[in-house]
Predict the structure.
Amino acid sequence: MACLLEAPLRISVLSEVTATSRHYVDRLFDPDPQKVLQGVIDMKNAVIGNNKQKANLIVLGAVPRLLYLLQQSSSSLELRTECAVVLGSLAMGTENNIKSLVDCHIIPALLQGLLCPELIFIEVCLRCLRTVFISPVTPVQLLYTDPTVIPHLMSLLSRSQRTQEYITQIFSHCCKTPEHQTVLFNHGAIQNIAPLLISPSYKVRMQALKCFSVLAYENTQVSMTLVNVLVDGELLSQVFVRMMQRDQPIEMQLTAAKCLTYMCRAGAIRTDDSCVVLKTLPCLVRMCSKEHLLEERVEGAETLAYLMEPDVELQRIASTTDHLVAMLADYFKYPSSVSAITDIKRLDHDLKHAHELRQAAFKLYASLGSNDEDIRKKITETENMMDRIVSGLSESSIKVRLAAVRCLHSLSRSVQQLRTSFHDHAVWRPLMKLLQNAPDEVLVMASSTLCNLLLEFSPSKEPILESGVIELLCSLTQSDSPALRVNGIWALMNMAFQAEQKVKVEIVRSLGTEQLFRLLSDPDSNVLMKTLGLLRNLLSTRPHIDQIMSSHGKQIMQAVTLILEAEHSIEVKEQTLCILANIADGNTAKELIMTNDDMLQKIKYYMGHSNVKLQLAATFCISNLIWNEEDVQAVVNSDCSHKGSQERQDKLREMGFVDILHKLTQASDPNLCDRAKTAMQQYLA
Amino acid sequence: MAELGAGSLSLGDPAFNYQEHELNERLKRLYPAVNEEETPLPRSWSPKDKYSYIGLSQNNLRVHYKGHGKNHKDAASVRATHPIPAACGIYYFEVKIVSKGRDGYMGIGLSAQGVNMNRLPGWDKHSYGYHGDDGHSFCSSGTGQPYGPTFTTGDVIGCCVNLINNTCFYTKNGISLGVAFTDLPPNLYPTVGLQTPGEIVDANFGQQPFVFDIEDYMSEWRAKIHGMIARFPIGERLGEWQSVLQNMVSSYLVHHGYCATATAFARATETIIQEEQTSIKNRQRIQKLVLAGRVGEAIDATQHLYPGLLEHNPNLLFMLKCRQFVEMVNGTDSEVRCLTIRSPKSQDSYPGSPSLSPRHGASNTHLHTGADSPTCSNGVTPPNKSKSHSGTGSSSIKYPSVSSSASSSTSSSPSSVNYSESNSSDSTKSQPHSANSTQETSLSLNFRRNQTHVTRSSNHDSEMEIEAEHYTNGVVEGSSARIMNGTYKHEEILQPDDNSIDEGCTNGRQLCGGNQAATERMIHFGRELQALNEQLGREYGKNATHKKMLQDAFSLLAYSDPWNCPVGQQLDPTQRESLCSALNSAILESQNLPKQPPLMLALGQATECVQLMARVRSGSCSFARVDNFLH
């Protein structure tokens, strides 16, 4: 209501303001340079802290004129300096202001200004550039367009504390990609910035530190260089450790911990180094505590998660440090019920950070629980943990959903948790829902988790099957993303393990042979392996083997032939031979091999292969073919089975398999030797 | 287990002494606010405060179990020698598990005096422990709470007591495990308990560097407390705080008589000075006289400017006179100074506060007119001077004679050292060794009587008493002296001296400037002083403090070189400061002005407050020390 009433009033005020603003702009065009200077100074005083005035001046075209005056060599140093100050002030306004400034090509103009010998002018230009570059709307690339800019900035680092502060701040905001890191590194960023870490100015130290954190992030080259750098005779890592001391400002502690984390992750510092175990890790755990700002807690948790992700020992230490696991539970309590009533401002702040807090906590739990069973247990026993994950899976924020599913995935590696808490909380339900419609990154994690939930011993397997998961997984195998294809087929493989025939038939039907064979020629060897695994699981127990082979025998034999003939890893060939051995175990399916001389020759070849694993699989296959003790069920079904085995034995003897088996009974590998002997016994029986 | 293994350290062992030294250094650094005379720090396990199943070795730092260890009834604990003083702020000790023994039922923690030692720490009321076998914490209860990881052979477990918020956390191998206990009671002792055979643990109360970086943790709390102090809301109206501070500064300047500075400050800050200019200047003059050691003149000036003041303060007068006597020995008081032939300036060095020029003539030339001699530019009239000169030859009163008679009664007295020998470089003033005058004998008797009561440490005690009178609000002498020195630095300009000062230094100082007449005058004055004491005793009753002061002052004469004798500290010019401020306070009081400047009062209040915090066991006192804020 109030707003509506005020609206007309505002318009009238605006027109008035515009009139005075125009006057400021007009004065920039005065023929008398002295009056121009006074005009700029007046403008400076008028815009300070006045966003409306800033916007007006921009709309009225003050920027191009100011830039013109700034670049004119005929302008006095004072005028040029004042112009840069006004531009810097305009940049302090809204994001729209920055956009307008960038559109007017302020960046090249100011970069040009840095070539001026006058320090004061350089400083105001840098100050303005800094303000422009730290805005999220400015394209970072503009710093790298002109290749002479970075070296010039490096050379300006020695000029004054101000240039140091502004330049390092520009660097730390404009170093977003590995390419940027390389450019800065190649221009001597490390040597130039390292001494600034012991600058008497806190701002300079802090910005230099931030520079190192962005330079070292996932960059082995930078990290490896950093560990050997000395600052005033002290190793850089020790300088960082000092900056992490508990009486230092939190921002400094946190950023120094980030630097060491990145150096550690890049392999430059060992994970058992005391500066990691006794300093960086505890510092990051401290950052997670309630007494710090929400932003700091988010950053601390994320950095800690990243630090210990690959190292189980660090995970174990962190899990016992300062009750971290319990401390993280607090991350889910925002916005707190108190803040809603007492303080609107606080509520707003809490709301803004609530998602960030939750996703950071999930990430950290995921990292903590990725290896150690005891830690996983501790996590699931934290108050309402499983409920939190479950609700996290269906949050609106993608970041939270992703982190929640990561956490769930990490915990799903525990057999015990799969059997207990996962089942109790029916986590499969939101997980299935998540899989219906989610971006790829979420899908990858969710389907990977599903793989674990579909493991044979998981009690969630049944309800998931009933929820129509097969269709979903089959569709995943058609994804463009190899990771999703692997997860889809992997889940199917797990599902098929010791499954009822009904399930197996459903899998084959739903997947379709065409897709199955497409997967057998997938460029990703992981996909191929899991598909073979699926086949092998499908082809288990005789009735299933015979049933599937009777309907898809031709295609399967064809696919097996193709794989055995193509260039593949030992593992792939071994898996394929195992499938063949399973086929040979069928009653009727056997004939598909026995009637295929080409296949028998291949088996013979692999029995003489140099790799024992392949020899073993091939021998296993032959052993199944010559087996003469059919089980009762089979005897009833097959009236001529015994006769069949005799015939097969004869045929195989003719083909020279007995000689080979005989030779293999002398093999050095005991398994192979045993297998060959067992097969030989069938002949003697 | 042998009580003391071959490798164990024993007293007198250099390694042990080194360790002891390390320990003291570390404890001093960690707990600077702890007054160990009041509240000693734990340094080892107590051989008296333990269960019989506990064996101690290695200077009572190693604990081993020597019971049956059948069940929990065989548990045994030992406490440290002392409870943790609250003034530590943050206290920390570590225990290394040398061997987990049979079952590793070890508990590390805290317990109050009197808690049953046939138990593991944590099981009983006022007992707290972290147990190795299950990693649980026990908070005065037989059932533990899941707390941390288990611990075993090779692990180092630390226990940190935060006396600011009364919590405790443990560390394992240098990693903090988080808060274990809250709302801890005061006066807890470090405690360990063992329960099965073979369990051995070593304590580190600071003998070795700690595995956990406790100093880093302390630094956080120091920063926190300092921040709290810095951000303490004063909640006053705008500008009020500023005017309070200005008044503090202004009144301090006025109090100490920095007239010009005070006026300038008042002008700049537009504040008003309560006291009149002339009054400030008068006080300044008197103070300078006292600080220059010219106490006699100070007394005269006081009597002149503030008639009745000293009459109403007989104690103060007595103290002044006592000091005057000391200054006579020093050769600085004008009554003896004008008698000496040699430059009295040689006696004027003021090493305690070198920035202050004690010389009257140097800064206060307006005080006297017509100074005819550079060596006597102290406002004493020439006739007086010549008179005392004439007396020099006739008098043969000798201090050594006094001392020789004194030495007969106290064999340990060093007074038998021959006076002239000790001054052999000064050939012009060789003194006869014999003592003959009856005057002298009576005095010597007095001295002898006094001296028998003198003990070597007495002078310290007496000075403490004197100071205690002036600093009733808790300002410690050290800090007040420092402030005085610091501010004088800006005020006084040291007059360049002629080379006599060097001469004086190289030749060594002499009694009363080495002048016989002066010595005579001093002895005479001593008798007057004695009489005054007796008179005061009759009027106001015996005063132990006076007696002590008198004894100490007279004891100076018992030594050939009073400046380097056990009571020689009295001669130090810095000793004038407390008297000076007492006199100043008395004058101000007589003018109905505060006898203490509000700044000093606030400082004393703060210091006292911090000490009180230690006594009422508020640990933050450790990080709120007044010293930290005085730069």
